[in-house]
Write a structure and sequence with these properties.
The chain is of the alpha/beta class. 41% of the residues lie in helices and 25% in strands. Strands 3, 4, 5, 6, 9, 10 and 11 form a 7-stranded mixed β-sheet that branches. The protein has a two-stranded antiparallel ribbon with strand order 1-2. A two-stranded parallel sheet has the order 7-8.
């Protein structure tokens, strides 16, 4: 195969339902993908895909090629990781993947300091919720809330991430007989833990935190969110709920890259300095004085 980039296009086609879908995943055009695959089939002397009204599917020959292509792709990725691991410069890009809420509530200011200290490092930040593939360097460093770090990942757990119940002072000053439950669309936080009726549900931590700050009710949030919202108070009648863990990780093959080591060491320190707050055990947490539900 003369052009290794054809592997990437071929694999995208193999995992797609149509040429258009493959092109969209690659960030290119339908015409480009179609032309490249026709050229590849001519080079290999056999048909890779069958086209029908239902879309595209691999031929038997194409399925065999896919197995070899995946192996070759893994080897190319390994070479890329090896090359990257040998870089010894603090100048250049680093891909950082993390949840947007972790950036907003925990890491925005520390990352600002990091950028000031290391002005030649270009941080490429991806806030997707999906787990980036470290092996293919979709990200160089990931910060993830999980209990099961991916295989071949190097790093450490930087904090536990429990849940706690929060409400605003305004809501507590006018607390109804039956609480209003603000639900996070996440099983451990969805169902009311108090005598409450659900009035709101969202799949965004920031949206739920905003509804709580505006006094719409009570609900569960990770402490790294709730403790960083000055308008919210923790309800003492609900104990901390153990939940997930926060990890800072990279692929073991690239952990010696100077930029990777520098960023990961800094993130370890940033989480360490905020760990008690993230875990809801800050020495002086903002805990509401017990305000019973109104009896009238």
């Amino acid at each position: 195969m003369k052009n290794w980039d054809d592997l990437r296009i071929f694999q995208a086609m193999a995992g797609a339902r149509s040429i258009r879908e493959a092109a969209a995943s690659l960030g290119t055009t339908h015409a480009t993908v179609s032309r490249r695959m026709r050229a590849l089939e001519e080079e290999l002397g056999s048909t890779l895909f069958e086209r029908s009204r239902d879309g595209i599917s691999l031929t038997v020959f194409g399925q065999g090629v896919l197995t070899f292509a995946e192996n070759a792709s893994e080897n190319v990725a390994a070479i890329d990781r090896l090359t990257f691991s040998k870089e010894g410069s603090l100048a250049g890009p680093v891909r950082l993947s993390l949840l947007e809420d972790l950036y907003s509530f925990v890491l925005a200011e520390p990352i600002d300091v990091f950028m000031t200290r290391h002005p030649l490092i270009e941080l490429i930040v991806d806030t997707t919720a999906s787990l980036s593939d470290l092996g293919r360097r979709e990200a160089d460093v990931i910060v993830r809330i999980t209990r099961s770090p991916p295989e071949q990942a190097f790093g450490r757990k930087v904090a536990n991430s429990p849940l706690a119940a929060y409400a605003s002072q305004n809501y507590l000053d006018n607390r109804p007989k039956i609480d209003r439950w603000i639900a996070l669309d996440y099983p451990p936080a969805a169902s009311p833990l108090l005598h409450a009726r659900q009035v709101f549900r969202a799949n965004s931590l920031s949206v739920v935190a905003t509804a709580l700050r505006l006094g719409q009710g009570v609900g569960l949030l990770p402490c790294f969110v709730g403790e960083n919202c000055p308008e919210l108070l923790r309800l003492p009648e609900v104990a901390l709920i153990p939940d997930m863990e926060i990890w800072v990780l990279t692929h073991e093959d690239v952990r010696h890259n100077l930029r990777i080591r520098t960023l990961m060491d800094y993130l370890y320190q940033a989480f360490s300095s905020q760990r008690r707050l993230i875990e809801g055990v800050e020495l002086t947490p903002r805990v509401a004085a017990y305000v019973p539900q109104n009896s009238t």
